[in-house]
Amino acid sequence: MAWSILESWGVQLLQFLTFLVIARYVDARMLGIVAMALLVGQWFQMIILSGISASLVSKGAADADLDDTAFWISAAVGALLLIATFLLADWVERTAAHQGLGMVLRWLSVANFLGALNVVPQAWLTRALLMRPLATRSTISTLVGGIVGIALAVAGYGVMALVAQNLAVAVIGTIILWAACPMRPRLRFSREKARDVLFYGRHVGVTGAANFFNANADIMVIGLALGGAATGVYTVGKRALLAANLMLARALSRVALPVFSQLKGDPPRLAKAFLKIVSATSSITTPAFVGLAIVSDEFIFLLFGPRWAAAADVMRYLSLFGALQAIGIYNQSLMLAMGKPQWQTWLAGIYALVNIVTFFFAVEHGMAAVAAAFTARAYILYPLSVWPVVVLLPLGWRDYWKALRPSVVASVVMAVFLWGFRFALAGQAPIPMLLSTVIAGAAVYMIVLGLVGRTIVIDMFHFARAGGKRVSSTS
Questions:
Q1: What whole-number distance in Å separates Cα of residue 101 and Cα of residue 108?
Q2: Are the beta carbons of 268 and 300 closer than 8 angstroms?
Q3: What is the pTM of this model?
Q4: Each residue of 387-403: pLDDT tens digit?
Q5: Is there a contact between 356 and 318 (Cβ–Cβ < 8 Å)?
Q6: Which residues lie closer than 8 Å to 392 by C-beta, 6 or more apart?
Q7: Contact of 389 with 337, CB cutoff 8 Å
Q8: pLDDT at site 23
Q9: Residue 59: phi, psi to the nearest 5?
């Protein structure tokens, strides 16, 4: 977990800093085109590759025949996607009416194919809880990709700077991953193992399809209805949220599935671990995302510049969604670990349907309305995501709320205080306003959390100290 945290923070900081610099040298339309092209890779990852990976990790133990079979399945599917993208890229460009989209799709299809080749070694390391090589791979590849992207953007290469950045990350990451993983695929293919992968992966894949639309329907609707420039602005607001969410939540969520899978034979212990990890995540992510919503105007102005000011409202609403998403990840991991991927499929399908319908009505009111609808849907339907938890584990709704209550109460108090605090400082320059808000908000949150959730503070202190010792001993 400690190595996973280091990876998430390091990678997301590098990615965000790279995006921050490149956004100052390319226009909104270019960002919008690349954002839409990247949807193909996200679709492939969430619908196909995630199912293969989850089927390996959920086993909890090594299986060479399963790994070999899964590798050849993912490689074959990746090759088919590569060919299909090359053949259909021009048609997609004409249909979407975004000039240059076809060229970007072809280049990024290479990165998608490399992603298919990386599924099994990454799952192998994750299943073994060997997070250090994964952290090294992600950090180095992201750094190299950032250097390439920034250099080309400054030199005036525009959209190709973003394309080259993604390709560099994929190529370098692939080399490092295969060098670090001892597993090597053999020329073996088991029909029985293939059925296992496909049977388990079909539910994860359908869930991934629904989650894909949940996560990206807003960008697709805005891209089709409002154009590339609006998509670029929306992407800036959403990218700030994505960086924060992955930094704060991904580190713990990546460990959740293998840990839950290993504990599923001991339900009381699993229930205790589940509540603890949800409580720990919420104590960090909830105040962080609430704080991002409060300082969104200063955040966008200072980091991206005044021409991206419209992204602040998008970021404000999506940040409130991020506070919920950070803990909701564990509900999905639990269902996968307990062998109930079909439950998540049904839930994701409901979310996707509601999202698409809501966005088509909201888009005529602008980007901020889409972001607000996205967040409202998440909060209204969230109890559906918690229901499987109380069914699968020996705990109740009151136990779940008790785990969240300290961080939620402290965050609400912090938000109310900052509303009056910022009102009193109205008219201040962006930098003093941002710094004073962060300092005051952090102080109020920690004081209130210490009063209503002292146990959480103690647990986080022990975790940080133990994690630091563990990292030092393995360095």
A1: 11
A2: no
A3: 0.65
A4: 999 999 999 999 999 99
A5: no
A6: 334, 335, 338, 340
A7: no
A8: 74
A9: -65, -30
